[in-house]
Design brief:
The protein has 5 helices and 12 strands. 34% of the residues are buried. It has a 6-stranded antiparallel sheet with strand order 4-3-6-1-2-5, with helices on one face. It has a 6-stranded parallel sheet with strand order 10-9-8-7-11-12, with helices on both faces. It has 2 domains: 95 residues, Translation factors (Elongation Factor Tu (Ef-tu), domain 3); 131 residues, Rossmann fold. By secondary structure, the chain is of the alpha/beta class. The chain is globular, with a radius of gyration of 18 Å.
């Protein structure tokens, strides 16, 4: 019987941007923590006396590989108890308790449509997991377009990896929207000023039934994206899948 809670220890910490860190935890014990690419885990952090106020959920950023190592990509939020704990107190060797992986934000076993991944900030984590899962396991798929939004060049997460995937997967397209950069640098991928919405509106203005949109980020971005896709562009509700960050 699968345990409900698992113990782990932090084994690696890296800066991904000026406000974002990557944390790797090694699960303790012999039981393999299996998960589907796109799922999340709920952590029990020592930040409150009340149990439910200690719980914070984070998407698993790495692909399933039976290694019992999980990666989280966490942004520092001003006043956020959970992220402040990670940035100021968590060190190599810190113990982290978490619930077994959960959530329904994962791809179907058989991918039959083009995939459009729309995300901002650390909302890219589940899509990184999905992309490496598809590549590592040679999962049959069609076209995939990752559209990532952040403020400045410094905030582009996992950039080198996605450039690498563009080389390895010709059917993979990568685009980035920068909302606060006046001058755009030269990149190997599509770079645009503004927000993610302008990119998918440009590439998918003609409604097609064989495309699914997967969206991850803060609720206001998702609300705007769903409204644009359905009300302005004419896509069906069943073509849109999303995971809220708050």
């Amino acid at each position: 019987m699968t345990k409900k809670w698992f113990d782990s220890k932090v084994i690696k910490i890296e800066d991904e941007s000026s406000t974002t860190k990557r944390f790797w935890v090694q699960v303790e014990g012999d039981e393999i923590v299996d998960f589907k690419a796109g799922q999340f885990v709920t952590l029990d952090l020592p930040i409150s006396d009340k149990r439910t106020k200690r719980w914070r959920s984070y998407s698993i950023a790495n692909a399933p590989d039976q290694s019992n190592i999980l990666e989280f990509c966490i942004v520092l939020l001003k006043g956020g108890a959970g992220t402040t704990y990670f940035f100021e107190e968590v060190k190599i060797g810190t113990s982290i308790k978490f619930k077994k992986p959960a959530g329904g934000f994962y791809l179907p076993e058989k991918i039959e449509t083009d995939l459009v991944f729309i995300c901002t900030g650390t909302g890219v984590a589940p899509f990184r997991s999905m992309l490496w899962d598809i590549y590592n396991n040679e999962i049959p798929h069609k076209n995939i377009h990752l559209i990532f939004g952040t403020r400045t060049v410094d905030g582009i997460l996992y950039e080198k990896e996605f450039e690498e995937l563009m080389e390895k997967m010709p059917e993979f397209k990568y685009s980035v929207a920068l909302s606060r950069e006046e001058v755009l640098p030269e990149k190997k991928y599509e770079l645009a000023k503004g927000y993610v919405h302008s990119i998918y509106q440009k590439h998918f203005s003609e409604v097609r039934s064989e495309v699914d949109f997967w969206i991850c980020g803060w609720s206001n971005m998702i609300d705007e994206a769903v409204a644009k896709l359905m009300l302005e562009m004419g896509y069906e509700k069943g073509q849109i899948h999303y995971e809220l960050y708050g």
